[in-house]
Amino acid sequence: MLTPNPSHIAVEASLEAMLTAYFPNTEVKSVATEMSAFLFDEESDFLTRSQKLDSWLNLNPKMEELGDILFDLLMVQFLSAEVHEEDYFDSDEWNEIENKTLDRGSEMLNLFLYISEAKEEEVEISLDDFLNEFLLVGEDEFQDEYRIYESLIVNEDILDADMDALREIQKSVKEETYLKEYFVSLVLFFQHVEEGIPETDLNKSLSPFELAIFNTMLAYYNN
Questions:
Q1: pTM given for the model
Q2: CA distances (Å), 27 to each of 12, 55, 194, in order?
Q3: Distance (Å, rounded) from C-alpha 187 to C-alpha 189?
Q4: Contact, 35 vs 15, CB < 8 A?
Q5: Four-CA torsion 172, 177, 179, 180, nearest 10 degrees
Q6: Any idea where the domains of the chain sit in the sequence?
Q7: Nearest-CA neighbor of 70 among 18, 135, 33, 25?
Q8: Residues 50-94: tens digit of each pLDDT
């Protein structure tokens, strides 16, 4: 019997945390088991697994809102659980994956990958490290990243912001960054890492989607 690697454990924990937050008071084990069948199907190539995810979502429309973050979990599992030589990312296979999935997933994939790298290198996780050392938003060649995450960069006291302040800042997040719906959950994650679990009643302050994203990230970090 194979021992699950750290990535497998973290992704599995993230999936269950997401489903539990999104569908409170519901037994999620069977749903998680169904999804694990293709998330961890290392006998199939990535695009085949992606197609299986799409087919599953078509059969489970109530999960449609979580489709992008589920794709992120599929991608992070693929990238971290399987050994890829450095030149793999110049290969025809990877180019095909990129070309066929350009419009898939969310900006949360960056956070998943950052958490994985920081834990592997035993670096303390922080918003500053994420923006400046991982995304390199201060470098000229990474100005696309700057534009996407500008709302996190220009609001210097964002980690001290309460929920009302976060909602006000969220209003100014540009739709074309595709970050708006994840914004509050993302900030709360870094507030948790740096200051501990927020004292506010998140079940009342966050939508089911936001609560699912927040819990997903915490589970990935803690596992």
A1: 0.89
A2: 15, 22, 32
A3: 5
A4: yes
A5: 30
A6: 6-100, 108-222
A7: 18
A8: 999 999 999 989 999 999 999 999 999 888 766 566 677 778 888
